[in-house]
Amino acid sequence: xVLKKSLFEEALLGDTLLKNRVVMAPMTRSRATExxxxxxxxxxxxxxxxxSGLIITEAVxxxxxGVGYLNTPGIYSTAQIEQWSRIxxxxxxxxxxxxxxxxxxxxISHPSIIKGNTPVAPSPVRPEGKVLTSDGMKEFITPRKLxxxxxxxxxxxxxxxxxxxxxxxxxxxxxxxxxxxxxxxFLVDKTNKRTDEYGGSVENRCRLLNEIIxxxxxxxxxxxxxxxxxxSGVFNDMGDSNPKILFSSLIEELNRxxxxxxxxxxxxxxxxxxxxxxxxxxxxxxPLYRGNRILNGEYNKESAMDAIRxxxxxxxxxxxxxxxxxxxxYRLKHNEGLNELRMDKFYAGGEEGYVDYPSIEKLDV
Length: 365
Ligand SMILES: Cc1cc2nc3c(=O)[nH]c(=O)nc-3n(C[C@H](O)[C@H](O)[C@H](O)COP(=O)(O)O)c2cc1C
What we know:
With 365 residues, the protein is of the alpha/beta class. It has eleven helices and 14 strands. The strands form four sheets. It has an eight-stranded parallel β-barrel, surrounded by four helices. Strands 1-2 form a two-stranded antiparallel sheet.
């Protein structure tokens, strides 16, 4: 008998039982303090969204040098860790599950954000574009190339962050290897020009991610570790000369690890000018992975149900719809309309456009 998977039925993710297959995608909202402390507002925000099967937190800095954006939270200081425990407690008290997204910005930062230091990267390749600092928008600068010893330290920072997350009862961790940040900068050849064991061949460029997974798995079970990739991503001035080979080989390698899941982002800004990029990420890369897959990127109820029904994935994550609809599961299930999204409040810092979106949820979700 073939069991039909439904968006609204419970499902196992590793050893974590989720109450449905609707996942809240990781989203930076810049509501932490200057020191990267999660705030009371954040407790409320995540708590409001705990009817999702799984919440994946916003990107969380693994170290002071990993910070890319103002007012983003970290999980490296005792005070930060304590504040995160209030968030995991609140979500768990509502019967929700929560993974933390572990993040290092690499070159997508600025000295004024990281206490005067030069951002680090696999190679000194300056990104096109600007970043918001406390003195307004500033051009990115040329990053400093990491030496081998520093790379090993960063791997330990990811492990320590995962350990801290385990201490405050996160249900698991997601390694942010997408969207042009440090780990992605190692993966693709536009940003990785190294000639040592962390650059050159596909195997070498994937080494940092593989070593981070390995190191974290010494401390927390591998089936509580997820990985996020954006194989057709161009955000943050990214690109690879042969992404199909790179990401297919990487996924083949990840198949051997028994992770909680692979989280794939669709090609949201697909351009014909980049014919090497895969247009339908879920369709092309999804079948290559033999574990749980979360697909993301401009999905709605119909396309999400279709992706699950046609076996392209087991879970769907929603980003922007979760910003404006704390009760998204209820609204999807009962075909209710969605609140209007206020984009100007994405990173605005206050409660407005953050914890004030109305909920129509009844208790029968
Ligand atoms: C305000 C905002 C912040 C985001 N921050 C993150 C982040 O911290 N980590 C991450 O992996 N993706 C981040 N993303 C990307 C989302 O997780 C998601 O991939 C994107 O919104 C597409 O999904 P959607 O079409 O359902 O919104 C962010 C997106 C938005 C809109």
